[in-house]
Amino acid sequence: MVDPITALIFAGLSAAVLVVLFLPKKGIAARLRRSKLDSKRVLIEDALKHIYDCEYNKSHSSINSVAGNLNISTDAAAKLISRLEEMGLVVSETSSINLTAEGRSYALRVIRIHRVWEKYLSEETGVSEMDWHDEAEIKEHTLTIDEANDIAKRLNNPLFDPHGDPIPSSTGQLPKKIGIPISDLKTGEFAHIIHLEDEPNSIYAQILAMGLYPGMQVRMISASNERVVFEANSEEKVLTPLFAQNISVQPTAETAKVYEDFKLLSSLNKGEEASVLGISKACRGKQRRRLMDLGFVPGTKISTLMKSIGGDPIAFQLRGTTIALRKSQADLIFIK
Questions:
Q1: In the 8-state DSSP scheme, what is residue 163?
Q2: CA distance 266 to 335
Q3: Do residues 226 and 238 both lie within one domain?
């Protein structure tokens, strides 16, 4: 015969387990269902983004390209495309998959959220540039379009994200693609970088390591099937043609050159004095505002007081104040 107390304890534990499992909205079963739904939505939105990107770049999307981009099997991609067709978001044709008007509007909302969030990270936080894209990849599926519009308003409705990609307007308008690959510049031709492709990460990391950024002026030295050589910030840069394809530029007249003769603040030797020309466009958001608040504005006289062993950090004097900067920060300040 079962002891009544034991039976009562067992019944209580069983009830507690059932509550934990099946509690509406907060139970494990509810969380699993929600997770599954969220996962399906992420796949739908990522597929729409990929198809839109193909259309924007005038290339064709297919079941294989969707599978490769989303890292899923071709069978799973085929089922996903069928689901998108049922939802009225895409139309499958013999050679490609095309977005419907509703599908295009949905894709642009996701893209707007992604790029607004990247802009927010670059301007208002200390998040590393290498992490902007990955952070936005998550946020684009959780942030609502109204929340993204509020953030955009606080940022004065930016037109471009920090990589140079245009941000779709709140009404779903996106400018036509402009610019050319840097490798298409003629020898001696000047241009400004207008876009850095942030995928794949390995190529983007190397481009950043070279100190390249949107807005930077470059001058083509030579381009061949083996390498692309150009000048940026008075330094020679060398890229493979594959890497160069990830940099888009807008040709400019030679007279558009920003600084005829400049050096980086980090190159100023102890005891030397110079004038601040400006701050690199690679320096954004809070860091840029902090440097300007400290007095790093055009025309300010600055001198180097001392450099630590190894040259990092460096102590400078400007406006009667001693300020220590990391070399990486001093590399972002132009002087003459």
A1: T
A2: 10
A3: yes
